[in-house]
Recover the amino acids of this structure.
């Protein structure tokens, strides 16, 4: 899993210090959470303390309730212009709710229906 973060990102500093992070797939009813995460670091930090989730079993990184998640361990980082690409090994994955995932595409939030077997 790779993420590109601004060099001055506090989240980048946190990932380097802890050596791990998680990626949570949000569901359609999480649009307000996604909008909050698009704001400044202080707003995001306050929001994280109120979210429903739990520490991941493999890394302890916060895993939010939703359709799925991944826990990652930092493998390396690469400077790319004004960003740093962090590359992590996915060490755990999981499925949560059966709700469809929230997508951001062409400048707006969208949802996908989950196929029923």
């Amino acid at each position: 899993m790779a993420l590109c973060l601004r060099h001055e990102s506090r989240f980048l500093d946190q990932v380097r210090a802890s050596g791990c992070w998680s990626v949570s797939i949000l569901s359609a009813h999480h649009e307000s959470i996604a909008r909050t995460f698009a704001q400044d670091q202080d707003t995001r930090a306050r929001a994280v303390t109120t979210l429903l989730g739990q520490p991941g079993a493999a890394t302890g990184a916060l895993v939010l309730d939703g359709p799925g998640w991944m826990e990652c361990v930092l493998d390396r980082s690469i400077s790319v212009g004004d960003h740093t690409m962090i590359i992590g090994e996915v060490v755990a994955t999981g499925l949560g709710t059966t709700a469809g995932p929230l997508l951001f595409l062409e400048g707006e939030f969208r949802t996908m229906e989950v196929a029923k077997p």
User: Anything to note?
Assistant: The two ends are 29 Å apart (CA to CA). The helical segments are 10-18, 31-37, 41-48.
